[in-house]
Amino acid sequence: MPTPGFEPSANVARLRESATIAVSQRAKALRAAGRAILDLGAGEPDFDTPAPIRESAKAAIDGGATRYTATQGTAELRAAIAAKASRRRGETIGPDEIVVSSGSKQSLFNACYCLFGPGDEVLVPTPAWTSYYEMVSLARATPVAVHGSPDHGFRVTPAMIERHATNRTRGLMLNSPVNPTGTVYSGAELRELLALAAARGWWVISDEIYLRIVYGGPAASSLDVAPARERLVVVDGVAKAFAMTGWRIGWSVAPPELTRAMTAFQSHTTFSASAPSQAAALAAVTGGPELDAAVAQMVARFRERRDAAMAILATEPAITLAPPEGAFYLFLRAPGAGRVRDAGTAFASLLLERFDVAVVPGAAFETPDWIRVSYATERAAVEEASRRIVAAYHEASRGL
Ligand code: GLU
User: What's the CATH code of the domain at 181?
Assistant: First the structure.
């Protein structure tokens, strides 16, 4: 007799829920229950989407953008994305190389699913965003963590990557600015990694969702420095730079054959992304000075919060942190690191339960001795939470 109830399929038997999402949902639940939680878990800008983008979406709805679009995305949005990518690359990239999706997360998953399968290994510079490991695993391939050194912002080098390569290696996940460390790879560093991948025939998936959120000059895109595009997938979206997380629009720039496979795949899973959201994304991508100024202003606010948090954290010299040059995360070593197991999870629990501060344990990023702090929230909350992190650090250190 089969046992009644749910038995997970082999596809999801080892799937773990996204820790980045779980933390912010727990923070929301605790708030709803009356606790004044400071949520530094979610990687979600607290700003409103800029007005011109909102207006475009409203006009689009009234103009009839209420139906399915082409699976691949509207012709206008794909043309705008392709034109922007072409300018960046200095060669023509066509709309047949773009698939618009319901968020860069979907594009990353589509790419992993269409490129990798059983027996394949995919190199993941680590720490990395929690979902890369799960997406590769959902494609039944094996994620291989390549740990960078904290002394160099956890950057990985071609030599480190080579040490983890085998004859089953099929792909490399790149991400700059990096979630969770805020590290930004220079153009030269990125070029070396891409050159290695090209020489070995590996696919590269380059997640560039934080590209515009940088504090020391523009960040390099793989489109700027890749020796070739035959095996390159660049993923981007509007969520982070334009404060459009809820609109759910991302896209991929990839060779036409892969783009066709990803489109076919998406035609069976979600079909087209939301039509009004695509109109909003078109306004964001085509931009103009007003929107550039809005993005620059948000980045300036992130920078102020980063500096304020770092100044407070620096009052405790024992706190080690990877200085962030982009994105909106601080990654810091938990007390007891190297001495107690999974020090990051213990510290994150202490922060939440005793200090009402939500952060993401480093285990989510395959780096268990650390925690990730998001400063994409208002400055007063970032400052107060930083003070509590210092206090919690003292308390935890005393108990060790
Ligand atoms: N990417 C953001 C984060 O890392 C949002 C949540 C998620 O999709 O993981 O917090």
Answer: 3.40.640.10
